[in-house]
Amino acid sequence: MSSAVEKSYESSDKLIAYTTKISTTSFAPIQQTLQDRTLAEMGKLGGCIGAPEVLEMGKAMIHLTRASKVIDIGTFTGASALAWAVALPEGGKVISMDVTHEYLNKVGLSIIENVPELRAKIDFRLGAAVDTLQSLIDTGESGTFSFAFIDADKANYSRYYELCLQLLAPGGALWRGSVVEPTERGAIAIDAANRKAAADSSVFNTLLNVGDGVHLIVKKH
């Protein structure tokens, strides 16, 4: 029996296939190319790429919040950063952060660089995301981002949550991968971050059964 919470490209469930097809009509050809190459070339690691239905819902949130500045935590092969660049208006900026660019350089960067107007919107930063986020705060960028996406090392999710809330403007959306029934350390850390958001009176939060689970958090005014 398949899980009720899983990424569409990992699922054989007919309902998930139907809802994904309906939900990803605006999935750009360049996004499909990057996803296909990631799954083909990265082996088991390929499953770390964000589900298309999650990326498309994130793109909708960028339009809804009229975002021009986006935080992207967890670059991997660049799929999420690319999605946000597709959604952003001209002049928009994605700051995408990771501790390694090995997978970006191997798979995604050459694809993204084929479309200069999208590449110009993405600032790939190498290093610990906690340090990058703190540097943004230290340089006066608190309250200037409208959308943040977290899909990286699970142990730091609670810290990412705290720092991203400082950087988000009121009404900004925080988009995070989530889990149910946690047993291993990473899942336990995500569960703790989910519960932190649920208990935080400064946000609206909704845990969604989309892809392998998404927690949508909106900073109150």
Automatic annotation (TrEMBL):
Transferase as UniProt keyword: yes
MF terms in GO: O-methyltransferase activity; S-adenosylmethionine-dependent methyltransferase activity
Alphabetized UniProt keyword annotations: Methyltransferase, S-adenosyl-L-methionine, Transferase
Coiled-coil stretches noted in the UniProt entry, renumbered to this chain: none
InterPro entries (alphabetical): Cation-dep_OMT (IPR050362), SAM-dependent_MTases_sf (IPR029063), SAM_O-MeTrfase (IPR002935)
Transmembrane segments: none
GO biological process, alphabetically ordered: methylation
Family named by the database record: Belongs to the class I-like SAM-binding methyltransferase superfamily. Cation-dependent O-methyltransferase family.
Protein name: Methyltransferase
Organism per entry: Pristionchus mayeri
